[in-house]
Design goal:
By secondary structure, the chain is α+β, with helices and mostly antiparallel strands. The protein contains four helices and 13 strands. The protein has a seven-stranded antiparallel beta sheet with strand order 3-4-5-6-7-8-9, with helices on one face. The protein has a six-stranded antiparallel beta sheet with strand order 10-1-2-11-12-13, covered by helices on one side. The protein is globular and about 45 Å long.
Length: 241
C-alpha cells in the first residue's frame, strides 16, 4: 500500500503493481474471491480490519490505496472508517466516480487512492484525501509511480521517481515480470528508501501486481512466507459496448 506503479500498455490494457510496507506482525490473507453486497471481488485481506489496499471488481475496475495524502500528517483518531473498507466500498458500488464525488470522507485518515475503470474505455483516476479536502481527477494514460507520504519524504519520492524513470528507459515494451523485479529491488539507495524497503518496525511484506489484457490476473508475492499466489479472474473484464 506504500509504493505503486502504473503502466499503460496500449489497447486498453495496463499493469499496476503495489508494494505493501507494513509491520511484519500484521497478518494478511492471500488474494481470494469474495462476495460484497452481491458483487464479486478479488483482493488480499488484512486480518485485523478486514479491509484491503488493492482489489478487483466484476464492475470492471481496480482500486489501490496508499496511506497518507500529499504530506505526512498527524493522526487525529479515532477515525470513523478504516481506509481499507473504503477500497471495498468503491469496488462494490455501481458508479465509482459518482460515489467518490458524492461521498463525505470527513473523519477518515488521509489517503491516496488510484481507481482504474474499463467499462467504456480505460480511464484512470487519482483521489487524494488530505483530511480536509478531496482532490479527485482523471490522470493521463502514462507511466507513473506513487510513494506513501507516511513513509517517504518529498526528497525520497523524487529519488524513487528518478529510479522509475531509469527503469522505463530500459524496459519497453513493459513486462509484468520486469516491473515486479523493479518493485523487488532492495539495493537502491539505503534500506530505508529502497523499493523493497526495511526499517526497524516496517518493511515490504508483499508485492501485488495486476495485469489486464482480455482477461485479468493478480500475482501476489508474500515475502514473509516466500510464497507466490497467482489468480485469474473469471468474471467479465471486457469493455462494455
Amino acid at each position: 500500500m506504500c509504493t505503486v506503479t502504473y503502466l499503460p500498455v496500449g489497447n486498453n490494457q495496463f499493469i499496476l503493481t503495489s508494494n505493501r510496507d507494513e509491520t511484519p506482525l500484521r497478518k494478511t490473507i492471500p488474494p481470494a474471491n469474495y462476495d460484497e453486497h452481491g458483487v464479486a471481488l478479488m483482493y488480499p485481506k488484512d486480518e485485523i480490519a478486514g479491509g484491503t489496499w488493492i482489489g478487483l471488481s466484476e464492475k470492471n475496475r481496480l482500486v489501490c490505496l496508499l496511506n497518507g495524502g500529499f504530506d505526512l500528517h498527524q493522526r487525529k483518531g479515532p477515525y470513523t472508517m478504516s481506509r481499507g473498507l473504503i477500497v471495498k466500498k468503491i469496488l462494490s458500488v455501481e458508479n465509482a466516480v459518482s460515489f467518490i464525488n458524492d461521498f463525505d470522507f470527513e473523519n477518515i485518515e488521509p489517503f491516496t487512492l488510484i481507481l482504474v475503470d474499463w467499462n467504456l474505455q480505460l480511464a484512470t483516476y487519482e483521489l487524494v484525501w488530505d483530511g480536509l479536502e478531496k482532490h479527485f481527477q482523471e490522470i493521463p494514460q502514462e507511466p507513473r509511480i506513487w510513494s506513501s507520504s507516511t513513509l517517504y519524504t518529498q526528497e525520497m519520492k523524487q529519488l524513487r521517481k528518478n529510479w522509475f524513470r531509469t527503469w522505463l528507459s530500459a524496459n519497453n515494451p513493459f513486462q509484468q515480470e520486469h516491473i515486479i523485479d523493479f518493485h523487488s529491488t532492495s539495493d537502491k539507495g539505503t534500506p530505508e528508501v529502497s523499493l523493497k524497503m526495511k526499517r526497524n518496525f516496517v518493511e515490504t511484506v508483499s508485492i501485488t501486481s495486476v495485469k489486464k489484457e482480455d482477461d485479468i490476473s493478480m500475482v501476489y508475492h508474500d515475502f514473509l512466507n516466500g510464497k507466490t499466489y497467482a489468480e485469474t479472474l473469471f468474471f467479465n473484464t471486457r469493455q462494455k459496448k
